[in-house]
TrEMBL record:
This is AAA family ATPase. InterPro entries: AAA_22, P-loop_NTPase. Residues 117-265 form the ORC1/DEAH AAA+ ATPase domain. Keywords: Plasmid.
């Protein structure tokens, strides 16, 4: 009976009813999947079009994984539950809106705590693991702005509803910078001028924080997504004040999604209240895929290789995704990049099929820096020592996960050598040998130089072959063949006759 009442409430809820189709999760997998190559015959298109399609790969190609379904389902249900608790037709909700509006002009730390809290989701992980990509693609299915006309039952004559708002954390981690970013994002979405209103910009940060919360409540924001929470912008006093602001927004009834690096989000782990409130809708952790993961072998790797624009099939088959893992370390971003770069290289060389040599040349080329390759090899080879120079990578965590150490010196401990020595002394030799076999034999500097020379020779031979083929297609009198010589001889004969 209670479930029937809730369904009835959804169907007539002025804020939720327009979103019911968008927030359904039973067919999320098919709705979120997309590719610019769908229905396109790449054999018949021009090379210019092929390059344009490769430009669209990383932004517009999306293949859902089990993490996609987990995250998307949680996110949509969080938005749905948030609106159910803010039904503007209920007297208690209207009273709550008035009670919040009455706090205008007060400092953030002076406010009373209301009885209920909205839900919050935490999404953490290293850069390049697809956190933002997953959330943005899920939100793409939901209309961001809904304009409502007069609704006497809900108590408004006009309302501009914002179902979700994406905001990056301020680069300096300050509360003032975050508040301004929220107002700017809101202005861009609905055309308001909150970020330039003198009545708001002259306020102190603590008073402005209260006003921003009221504005978000007025526009019935379904979820506020705050991304790029890093250790360098969310540590110390800045992080403490921002954490208080997050809790206040939840208390105002605004659902949150907090995204960033694990070291940045760890600032929310100091107090049990913060942990409980900020993870109430789930705490999801993104890591680079392992080559044994279901999502890697069945979703990511097959779909990345399937994004193929060359006229003839590739000369190799990477059935289990091991080759792609070797050149990406399990990062979705790097996987797309190496596949993209290798196909561009093949097009530039005039080749009509992708080879493993193209992939190797792309990986060793300008699209990957030395640090990129070091990060990739750290995960592909399961060698934490290679990761130790990246301050935003959980070296100790991965060392334990891969079974290479039992106890590891803390990353924050003085002197990185202690960590390196502990890891090095604790390597499981079979694991290292397996990872090395996966990544291929280690090459000496001489072997690398020989390979580079071979690549240059191959490129030169391909260009020579291409020119020879073009020359053969020309007639004898074409200036690119003997036409130039005939023209000059004829000119000399005419000049000699004139003399």
């Amino acid at each position: 009976m209670e479930e029937d009442d809730e369904v009835s409430q959804e169907n007539t809820h002025p804020l939720l009813e327009p979103l019911l189709e968008s927030l359904r999760v039973d067919d999320l997998e098919s709705r979120i999947r997309r590719s610019p190559l769908n229905g396109l015959d790449v054999v018949a298109i021009s090379n210019e079009r092929r390059h344009l399609l490769l430009d669209q790969m990383q932004e517009q190609l999306f293949e859902p994984t089990t993490m996609t379904l987990n995250l998307g389902t949680r996110l949509f249900r969080m938005i749905r539950r948030g609106y159910l608790s803010r039904d503007p037709r209920k007297l208690s909700v209207r009273k709550g809106n008035l009670a919040l509006a009455a706090q205008s002009g007060r400092n953030l730390t002076e406010l009373p705590w209301f009885q209920s809290y909205a839900k919050c989701m935490r999404i953490s992980g290293e850069t390049g693991t697809g956190k933002t990509y997953e959330v943005v693609n899920a939100l793409r299915l939901v209309p961001q702005v809904i304009v409502h006309s007069e609704n006497k039952e809900a108590g408004w004559s006009h309302l501009v509803q914002v179902t979700w708002l994406y905001v990056p954390m301020a680069h300096d981690g300050s509360l003032g910078g975050l508040l301004l970013s929220i107002l700017v994002a809101l202005d861009e979405v609905i055309g308001t001028k909150y970020s330039t209103q003198r009545s708001l910009t002259r306020l102190s940060n603590e008073k402005l924080a209260v006003q921003v919360g009221i504005i978000l409540r007025v526009h019935a924001v379904g979820a506020l997504i705050i991304d790029e929470i890093q250790e360098r912008n969310f540590a110390g006093g800045h992080g403490s004040l921002a954490a208080l602001f997050f809790l206040r927004l939840l208390n105002f009834g605004i659902p949150l999604v907090l995204m960033g690096n694990p070291f940045g989000l760890s600032a929310l782990d100091r107090f049990s209240q913060d942990v409980r409130r900020t993870g109430s809708a789930g705490s999801l952790d993104f890591e680079p895929y392992d080559f044994t993961d279901f999502d890697w072998g069945n979703c990511i790797a097959p779909r990345v290789w399937a994004y193929y624009v060359l006229p003839k099939p590739a000369t190799f088959i990477d059935e289990d995704g091991m080759l792609l893992f070797r050149y990406s370390g399990g990062f979705r971003d790097y996987a797309c990049r190496v596949c993209n770069s290798a196909q561009r290289l093949a097009l530039d060389l005039g080749d009509d099929a992708l080879t493993e040599e193209h992939v190797e040349m792309a990986y060793q080329g300008d699209d990957f820096s030395v640090k990129d390759r070091q990060l990739i090899q750290g995960f592909a080879l399961r060698e934490p020592i290679r990761l130790n120079k990246f301050e935003d990578v959980r070296v100790s965590h991965y060392a334990r996960k891969w079974g290479l150490v039992t106890t590891v010196t803390s990353r924050a401990a003085p002197g990185a050598q202690g960590l390196e020595a502990t890891i090095e002394d604790s390597f499981d030799q079979s694991t290292v040998e397996d990872a090395a076999a996966l990544a291929g034999p280690t090459r000496t500097q001489h072997q690398k130089e020989v390979a580079a020379a071979k690549r240059m020779a191959t490129q030169k031979a391909n260009l020579t072959k291409k020119r020879r083929s073009a020359k053969e297609k020309c007639g004898d009198d074409d200036i690119r063949n003997d036409g130039l010589k005939s023209f000059l001889i004829t000119g000399f004969d005419a000049l000699r006759g004139a003399i």
